[in-house]
Amino acid sequence: xxxxxxxxxxxxxxxxxxxxxxxxxxxxxxxxxxxxxxxxxxxxxxxxxxxxxxxxxxxxxxxxxxxxxxxxxxxxxxxxxxxxxxxxxxxxxxxxxxxxxxxxxxxxxxxxxxxxxxxxxxxxxxxxxxxxxxxxxxxxxxxxxxxxxxxxxxxxxxxxxxxxxxxxxxxxxxxxxxxxxxxxxxxxxxxxxxxxxxxxxxxxxxxxxxxxxxxxxxxxxxxxxxxxxxxxxxxxxxxxxxxxxxxxxxxxxxxxxxxxxxxxxxxxxxxxxxxxxxxxxxxxxxxxxxxxxxxxxxxxxxxxxxxxxxxxxxxxxxxxxxxxxxxxxxxxxxxxxxxxxxxxxxxxxxxxxxxxxxxxxxxxxxxxxxxxxxxxxx
Length: 378
Hints:
Helix Hairpins, alpha+beta, two-stranded antiparallel sheet, 3 domains
């Protein structure tokens, strides 16, 4: 008997689930006839009630010998009152939606429709509230984007202007060191503009992939060499400002091949290496590790550093635009734009892959998975 108890409980649970499903199906089937969930049913009830009231008043008139004109007037008044009551309940959310729409046209995206019914108008009110929330979010992001871009553009321009004014006023000489300072600010400005162009392509969704098969070792070695020389690695990539940080490449097997868009993958690796270098301690080490993925042409890529790392609570936000990784503020000041990791995620998403911050006993480890030829976007 002890062995039969689980079976009995399972049978009861199945019966309960079946009954609940049957009740839900019946309830949904009765929806067209529920005046509280269907405008059509509400109007039908209104007509039936009006006819019943008129009939009742006619019978009263016949029994009491009241004049037909008086009965007609009372019947019209009763029907109008009932119609007004029902119509007011049906149109109240529509009127409120009109008021909220006018407020949104004036720039107030915080208002919502408070009157919510269970019928089709209620469904429309719920959808309207969702739309208003989306518009409010888009407007907030737009304002944040303008503010952040203005701040990011102002910083290198102000620094470059200060250097040039000092040269023009004769405060400093136009020696190589001064020119290098001006060049650094110009490169920073160019880098930001390049990232904003990538961001624009991200939003427009017009970027297509040119995926091909390539050998991973020489490809990543070229990216590492570019970073080591402090050269511009491509659209969205930064320049290496930490010559004390050592870059290491680990590819296994050495003949590993992958299927991806080389230019977009260059953006991913260059931005991840640049971010890792900026947050590395003095004489730190950044490792780029590549392994074969699960599918044909797939690739598992990791970039590891020895910096302060990213707490678990912040890992979901590091790929957001203009997020500078406040949790890693103990590292060296990088003056970054907060767009590098957002662009990296965009490029990975184009491939149909995934990017995340993985667990690491030390520093930060960002893992990239590319699906290869089987599921790569085109």
